[in-house]
Amino acid sequence: MSQLPAAAANAPSIGDPAPPPELVHRVSGQSLPAPFYVSDEWFTRDIDEIFSAHWIFAAAEAEIPEPGDFVTVTFATRSIIVIRDDANEVRAHHNVCRHRGARLLTEPAGSTGTIVCRYHSWTYGTDGNLTYADAQAPDFDKTCFSLRPVRVRTIAGLVFICLADQPPADLDDLADIVEPYLRPHDLANAKVARQTDLVENGNWKLVMENNRECYHCGGHPELLNVFFPTWGYSDTDAIPPRLGPVMSRYRQATEELVSVWDRLGLPHKRIAQLDTRPTGFHIEREAMDLAGESFTLDGTLACTRLLTDLGEARLGRVSMHMQPNMWLHITSDHGLLFSVIPLAPDKTLVRTTWLVHRDAVEGVDYDLDRLTSVWDVTNRQDADLVELAHSGIASPAYVPGPYGPSEFQVEAFVNWYVRALRGEHTWPQAAEDPDGSHR
Ligand code: FES
Ligand SMILES: [Fe+2]
Which of 122, 130, 140 to mutate to test the pocket of ligand 1 (most atoms within 8 A of CB)? Predict the structure, then answer.
């Protein structure tokens, strides 16, 4: 009879019973057990305890530039209207009529002067106040039936919402840290050049995990023209020999750009607080390969009208990751925003938004296909990898496997997630965890 290798003998056995959902148990440094990714119970907990309890990225302000412009954010049984009101403020309301509960706006985006319920025509202003309700009793008080508000916060042109009555209290602190990185690119005054919705056949956590490492970047030949696959390897880590030449180029490009960033007063230091606070995040400036200007095949600009008046095309990229559902890249000529919305245990919406200067003209300043082609194909490649991962994890043969050093952000995401489910994130942070910095 053959013997199992020692490592296999230590692994969980195929057919081990799944942990009950009330036990948030995982082995540090390993991928999660299968039920976290495939079961309805864990999906419900993710909706209730992650997406309904934390700040989530909803939209760019550029998606709703004029009063009355709105987007709806819908996941599981929740739907939220994010709308610019008549006073030009960004607001968020539950998309539920105060009469008998009908869903109000059913389109993903649009523009409207008032929010009218299709059922019995109750009508609300963009600020959520009820303005019309036909045939009510004489003592009916409209002021008691405004749309239920959702907390909303904009940060440098990005709109975040939180469904919780008591949202995580660290968003102001996060804004103080990230705004100096984002503000110079003026995303609040940009325009949407294109937006795509891709439904990936995998759990939302697999989408996030896939985003948090470049171990798989060999699957992205187009992106790798300009994206250094050294991402995730710190100077002290063992760098695979195959990445030696590219690491040299990365270091040289970084050295050159640091002097540019410093001259322009652009912050670039890496700040990583991914799993040590309620709203975990990471932000930094990174050099890019070849011309180093944009996400094109040769790295040269995709849009000749730059986002800002800094007068410098080669700025590399601002990279920001935020738990639980967003990441972004900003080059000198465009912003690229990604949001992740869970639809089912095995279905996830990935929305990609390309922002350019509001005065940039398609066909003159940018060609839409050149602007979007690298990330279009990269998104499809990632969707394929996420489906591959979900398919394998759904098999009874799956057992959690180990993360390597370059997958530290995957570990940080999973650790943040598990700590969130356990209610371990506090703010202000405990004294023994003073700044949340790690790695
Ligand atoms: S449910 Fe909306 S008006 Fe009746
Ligand atoms: Fe990828």
Answer: 122
Give the pair of three-digit tokens for residue 260.
Answer: 């540019």
Is residue 252 within 8 Å of residue 388, measured between CB atoms?
no
Cβ-based burial of 8 (10 A; exposed 0-12, middle 13-18, buried ≥19): exposed
Q: Supply 409's token pair.
A: 């952000």
Cα–Cα distance measured from residue 333 to residue 313, given in angstroms and rounded to the nearest whole number? 7
* CB-CB neighbours of 402 under 10 Å: 11
According to DSSP, residue 160 is labeled: E
Closest CA to 296 of 354, 215, 210: 354
Give the helix ranges, DSSP H, for 304-435. Answer: 368-393, 408-422
What token pair was written down for 182?
Answer: 């984002």
Q: Which two tokens stand for residue 191?
A: 């325009």
Ligand 1 centroid – CA 360 distance (Å): 42
Q: Given ligand 1 and candidates 94, 95, 96, 97, which is best to mutate, with the most ligand atoms within 8 Å of its CB?
A: 97
Model confidence over 302-340: pLDDT tens digits?
999 999 889 999 999 999 999 999 999 999 999 999 999
pLDDT of residue 234: 72
Which residues in the chain show pLDDT less than 50?
1-17, 433-439
Mean of per-residue pLDDT scores for the chain: 92
Domains of the chain: 56-152 (2.102.10.10), 170-422 (3.90.380.10)
Note whether 182 and 156 are within 8 A (CB): yes
pLDDT of the residue at 236? 60
Q: Which two tokens stand for residue 26?
A: 């995982």
Residue ID of nearest Cα to ligand 1 atom 1: 100
What are the φ/ψ torsions at residue 11 (nearest 5 degrees)?
-75, 160
Q: Which of 100, 79, 82 is nearest to 92 (CA)?
A: 82
Say how far apart CA 373 and CA 384 lie, in whole Å.
17
Which residue's CA is the closest to the ligand 1 atom numbered 3?
Answer: 120
Structure tokens at 267: 């912050």
